[in-house]
Amino acid sequence: MTKILTTTIIGLLITSLFLSGSGWAIGQGGNEIKGDADGVHNIKSPIKHVVVIFQENTSYDHYFGAYPYALNPPGEPVFVPFANTTQSNGFTPALLNHNPNLYNPFRLDRSLEILCGETNDYSQEQKAYDGGLVDMFVQQTGAGEVDTHAVNPFNCNPGNNGNETMSYYDGNSVTGLWNIAQHFAMSDNYFDTQFGATLLGHTNLVSGDTGGVLDGSIANGVLLANVESVLDDCAKAAPAQAVLLTGPNLGDSLNANGITWGWFSAGFKPTTPWDGNPAHKAVCAATGQRTATDNATEKIYGSHYDPFMYYNSTANPHHLRPSSVAMIGQTDQANHQYDLNDFWNATNAGNMPAVSFLKAPKTQTGHPGDSSVLDEQLFITNTLNNLEQSPEWSSTAVFITYDDSDGLYDHVMPPIVNNSNDPLHDFAPTCGGNKTVGGEPDRCGYGPRLPLLVVSPYAKPNYISHHVSDQTSVLKFILDNWNLNFADKKSFVNRAQSLGDMFDFGNHGRTPIVLLDNKTGEVTQIIQTH
Fold first, then answer.
1. I want to staple 131 with a disulfide (CB 3.0 to 4.6 A). Which of 136, 150, 201, 429 is the partner?
2. 180 DSSP 8-state letter
3. Strands 396-402 and 49-55
């Protein structure tokens, strides 16, 4: 049974923050915040700490297409929506029963938690949308087959029917995420900045620009696939194509303004530290075990999961450790690149960085094949429960979002705000045209629709944003919140829409704390704040 308590959260910002000073419109929906600069950091909202939980490979429909109605079969966690829950842009009876794809969408229960990986290739994702017909997912991105009646329901071998792309979970499996959506804010109109895979999504999150590639570009000096960094000791051995990214990223702006920050990757701490010999490398061989039915063990550091390691200015090539816990978030030999445990070491010591990106172990990212939907829930619920009970919670905003769709079906044709006409990689009916930011081809987007949730004392409860946004909208929020300039005119952030309508800064941080069971995702405790 959910417990509802009342407590006083000390440290909430007082109303003077909203008074005199130059106005700053944080977003649509009338949330204009007026206030003086907050010390040297020039903060323009009550949010002093941003935490981005960046997960892997799912589409909006795969997790939220059925929201807010769950099947609730016996033996699975029950989800019953609030009576006033807004219907999201999800499945309709026509999409469920007369879908234009080769198969109709079908539900997966909790026992079917380990998926095959789909195809998230830049070109094939474009073809799946078929110029707006959204009818070619099975042929273009479907790579796994599901037979829910078989003893071994998943067929991940080539030549299967590819129907897995049409699968989805509901609130009996992604229960934690659905409960987060009930009690906080989410978007049903948030998109991958571009079509394509993991590295593109990570790069757009921190810079909005996948161009300017050196040392082995994929096409026209633009990233099109997952490639290794020439700067990372722990990149995969003998990479076929290693690259270096140029141009500015968010870390450069934060450093220039003295704002503490870090990217915290599970497994980043080397198991064999660098010995100082230029000919040698650090080794990151830490492993983890997922709790899914197969109890698989695998390496937990993903070399494509830290975009800052691709830039000279923000890389930590030898995975050097921070000089002290007190220096986490500041510039030292670690150069703002850390192990995931370093985030909690800093937070427990009272120096949570202003901006933090958290990357789960590969076993808990939600990535099909590496992780599982229930292992992902374990990571997200544990992370949120700890953050919500930290002293910094009263001034924190958490963004939970994803790097790409994995090629999983989503019924919404993304708005194409940037075209590309590369005949080798672009599908003209979807991406053809002349709107090319900065003259760089091979950056067609927006790409597939992805989940986005905002958890904060200032998040609007049970709110669904319908405003168009993309991965660089998270970047825009950080830049705007600290009043930072970003010099890259080629960046998608220059056209990103605000996420401000998902917040209500007039409520003085009174959205309740909601604690979740890390296995079932069900609500265990609600703590009212005032």
1. 429
2. H
3. parallel
Host H or E run for residue 107:
strand 106-107
Backbone angles phi, psi at 107, to 5 degrees: -80, 140
Selection from 103, 80, 104, 101 nearest residue 93 by Cα: 104
Give the DSSP H/E element, type plus range, for residue 24.
strand 23-25
Residue 294: pLDDT band (50, 70, 90) is: confident
Distance of alpha carbon 76 from alpha carbon 73, whole angstroms: 6
For 167, the 3-state DSSP assignment is strand
We report the CATH number of the domain holding residue 63 as 3.40.720.10
Give the tens place of pLDDT for each residue, 208-245: 999 989 865 567 889 998 999 999 999 976 566 689 99
- For the chain, the domain total comes to 2
Residue 106 lies inside a defined structural domain of this protein: yes
Which residues make Cβ contacts (< 8 Å) with residue 5, sequence separation at least 6?
Answer: 525, 526, 527, 528
Beta bridge pairs of residue 3: 525
Tens of pLDDT along 247-269?
999 999 999 999 999 999 999 99
Question: Residue 294's CB: how many other CB atoms inside 10 A?
Answer: 11
Does residue 43 belong to any structural domain of this protein?
no
Domain carrying residue 67 = 59-170+407-438
| 239 cis-preceded (ω within 30 degrees of 0) | no
Has residue 235 been placed in a domain?
yes
Answer yes or no: do 231 and 104 share one domain. no
223 & 112 share domain: no
Residues 387 and 420 in one domain: no
Answer for the pair 28, 498: CB distance below 8 angstroms, yes or no: yes
The answer to whether position 247 is within a domain reads yes
pLDDT at 3 over 50: no
Q: And the tokens for 104?
A: 């109709």
Strand-pair partners of 186: 453, 464
Q: Are residues 241 and 152 in the same domain?
A: no
Q: Work out the number of other CB atoms within 10 angstroms of the CB of residue 173.
A: 28
Report if pTM > 0.85: yes
Residues 280 and 295 in one domain: yes
Query: Is 307 found in the same domain as 251?
Result: yes
Same domain, 164 and 202: no
Helix ranges (H only) for 118-183 are 122-129, 137-140, 175-183
Average pLDDT over every residue of 110-119: 92
CA torsion 305-309-313-319 (nearest 10°) is 120
225 and 278 inside one domain:
yes
Backbone φ, ψ for residue 398 (5° rounding): -110, 130
DSSP string, 280-321: ---B---EEE--STT--EEE---TTS-GGGGBTTT--TT-PP
C-alpha 5/C-alpha 458 separation (Å) is 19
Q: Residue 115, SS3?
A: coil
